[in-house]
Design a protein that fits this description.
about 150 residues; Methylamine_util_MauE
Length: about 150
């Protein structure tokens, strides 16, 4: 029985070679780097608008200035961690946590206040509908999880 279990597990598990797993991990890492740098720069370039939009969010309205600087700084730190070879895995874990946090916040806002709130994501991403945001974040969460799985 044990032989059959290991054969089945081995045959159906997807495990890229070490070289390919590094390439895949790096590709996903740089996708997050582009995303975080782009959205952080967009938020900093339109900080007043970003603060105004955050003011519409009941949970954040008292912390608008702090959050308007903290979020893009955290995004830039995550991007930096993904670039430095020794901290890439920490950066990917941070990216996963950020994306889960963003997704949970979007879901909370949608279901408690409705989809009429403006988006504060920054840049072209702010043009997505809330439903598209949910899909976008879910795909990024899956990619981050996959990247971590193949590197561990």
């Amino acid at each position: 029985m044990k032989i059959m279990e290991s054969t089945i597990k081995g045959r159906y598990s997807f495990r890229p070679s070490e070289k390919n797993s590094v390439l895949i991990f790096d590709a996903i890492s740089y996708l997050f780097v582009l995303l975080f740098v782009y959205t952080a720069v967009s938020k900093f370039m339109t900080i007043g608008t970003f603060q105004k939009v955050l003011g519409h969010y009941p949970l954040l309205s008292g912390y608008t200035v702090f959050v308007s600087y903290a979020v893009p700084i955290i995004e830039l730190i995550a991007a930096l961690l993904l670039i430095i070879p020794r901290t890439k895995i920490v950066g990917m874990v941070g990216s996963l946590i950020l994306m889960i946090g963003f997704l949970l916040y979007i879901l909370f806002m949608m279901y408690s206040l409705g989809p009429s709130l403006p988006c504060s994501c920054g840049g072209i991403i702010s043009k997505l509908s809330w439903k598209e945001h949910i899909w976008f974040n879910t795909i990024l969460i899956i990619l981050a999880g996959f990247a971590l799985r193949i590197r561990n």
